[in-house]
């Protein structure tokens, strides 16, 4: 007689001869149940595995394996299960059992698998047992998770030339645009996305606080508005080289810039009028709106007079304007929660927009946003940076990518960012 010992990961099968005709397998369950089952049939168990198992190598299973044990009654078999109490189980065991089985089957396997055996009846050994393998290292249809400094970002959608992203104040509804592609919307915080509208050179998209009203601009095209969270769209205004668009929380008042004038609509984009603050050159490139009637816009007039531009702030929806800060090469502005403007390597913050505080930035911010708890900046070819102390210090998040846009819910617990030529990444 040949004795074979087969090791399968953490479980071992000892195939040793039994001196008597009866086979007495001993099962040691992983909990404290002590069932005792006595059968009256005679059998010589023959184990017929439905998979091929090799004792010479080890592999981690990635599928469900079913083993069928067929007992041909020929001898008396009295299995005894030993534990620390005398509970008698009902027919179905809900725990995972790692047994040591003494039998005489011969296995000719091609790989080693570690199944979790869940018998369908623990009292009668003449039943069919199903071994279920549940791999712990294989995740099906789960997006890529990138941990970085305590933040976990999940890659969504596919690689596209993403240009801008916006969302509702609770972070549930999101909308993003692709330069040369379509508009994409999500109603589950970015888990799934639906393509909307047509292929255009979309540059920026903005949203009301409830995510119902959306507005997006096309470089060399028109302004498009939606009142049903992006399902349908209507073309507004004329063809211009639109660079930026913003809305107040209600979504009814819109402001846009095209590198020259400021354009304003009080009826959610149906009608528009141009604005030029007194004494300002028509070179406005970025604009931002906040709660209430406050608007802020920045100039870039280097191409016009060979020098920097200014910040212009209005507290009455653009009827009158102030210009409190100095001439600088401004690149971004956001006033949703705090007045924030950036140059190439500096960030300027203000509570009311009258006096400004300068701090350094860790990188050249392409976009900057705020929420109730932090300032967030993104850098093309760099990382995502967050600050919880008004820009005095910064923490790098995620990895170096061509970040093109970012949005946040009100309290900063849900973030979504887009990569030009890459994917959408969500956090929270």
Helical stretch tally: 1
Describe the global form. globular
Biggest sheet architecture: 11 strands, antiparallel
Number of strands: 30
The class by helix and strand makeup works out as mainly beta
Roughly what is the average pLDDT, rounded to an integer?
75
Number of domains: 2
Quote the beta fraction.
Answer: over 45%
Query: CATH architecture of the largest domain, please?
Result: 7 Propeller
Helix content: under 10%
The poorly predicted ranges are 1-150
CATH topology of the largest domain: Methylamine Dehydrogenase, Chain H
CATH class wording of the largest domain: Mainly Beta
- Find the CATH superfamily of the largest domain: YVTN repeat-like/Quinoprotein amine dehydrogenase
- Return Rg in Å: 33 Å
End-to-end CA span: 62 Å
Keywords, separated by commas or semicolons:
single chain; 2 domains; 428 residues; eleven-stranded antiparallel beta sheet; mainly beta; globular; Methylamine Dehydrogenase, Chain H; four-stranded antiparallel beta sheet
The gist of it:
This protein is mainly beta. 1% of the residues lie in helices and 46% in strands. The chain has 2 domains: 1-136, no CATH class; 145-427, 7 Propeller (Methylamine Dehydrogenase, Chain H).
């Amino acid at each position: 007689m040949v004795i074979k010992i087969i090791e399968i990961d953490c479980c071992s099968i000892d195939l040793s001869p039994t001196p008597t005709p009866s086979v007495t397998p001993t099962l040691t369950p992983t909990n404290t149940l002590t069932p005792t089952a006595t059968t009256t049939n005679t059998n010589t168990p023959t184990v017929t595995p439905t998979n091929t198992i090799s004792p010479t190598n080890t592999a981690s299973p990635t599928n469900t394996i079913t083993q069928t044990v067929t007992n041909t009654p020929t001898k008396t078999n009295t299995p005894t299960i030993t534990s620390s109490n005398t509970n008698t189980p009902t027919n179905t065991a809900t725990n995972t059992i790692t047994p040591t089985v003494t039998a005489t089957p011969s296995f000719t396997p091609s790989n080693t698998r570690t199944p979790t055996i869940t018998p369908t009846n623990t009292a009668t050994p003449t039943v069919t047992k199903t071994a279920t393998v549940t791999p712990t290292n294989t995740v099906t249809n789960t997006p890529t998770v990138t941990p970085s400094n305590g933040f976990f970002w999940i890659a969504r959608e596919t690689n596209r030339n993403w240009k801008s992203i916006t969302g509702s104040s609770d972070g549930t509804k999101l909308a993003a645009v692709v330069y040369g592609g379509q508009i994409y919307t999500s109603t589950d915080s970015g888990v799934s996305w639906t393509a909307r509208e047509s292929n255009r050179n979309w540059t920026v998209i903005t949203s009301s606080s409830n995510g119902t009203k959306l507005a997006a601009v096309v470089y060399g095209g028109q302004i498009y508005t939606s009142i049903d969270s992006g399902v349908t769209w209507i073309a507004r205004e004329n063809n211009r080289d639109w660079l930026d668009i913003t809305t107040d929380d209600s979504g009814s008042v819109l402001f846009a810039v095209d590198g020259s004038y400021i354009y304003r609509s009080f009826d959610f984009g149906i009608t528009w009028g141009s604005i030029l603050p007194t004494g300002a050159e028509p070179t406005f490139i970025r604009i931002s709106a906040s709660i209430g009637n406050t608007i802020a816009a920045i100039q870039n007039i280097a191409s016009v007079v060979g020098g920097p531009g200014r910040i212009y702030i209005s507290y009455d929806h653009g009827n009158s304007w102030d210009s409190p800060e100095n001439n600088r090469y401004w690149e971004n502005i956001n006033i949703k929660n705090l007045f924030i403007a950036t140059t190439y390597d500096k960030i300027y913050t203000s509570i009311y927009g009258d006096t400004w505080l300068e701090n350094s930035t860790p990188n050249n911010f392409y976009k900057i946003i705020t929420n109730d708890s932090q300032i967030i900046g993104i850098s093309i070819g760099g990382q995502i940076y967050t600050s919880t102390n008004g820009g005095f210090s910064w923490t790098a998040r995620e990895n170096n990518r061509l970040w093109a846009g970012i949005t946040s819910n009100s309290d900063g617990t849900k973030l979504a960012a887009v990569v030009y030529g890459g994917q959408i990444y969500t956090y929270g």
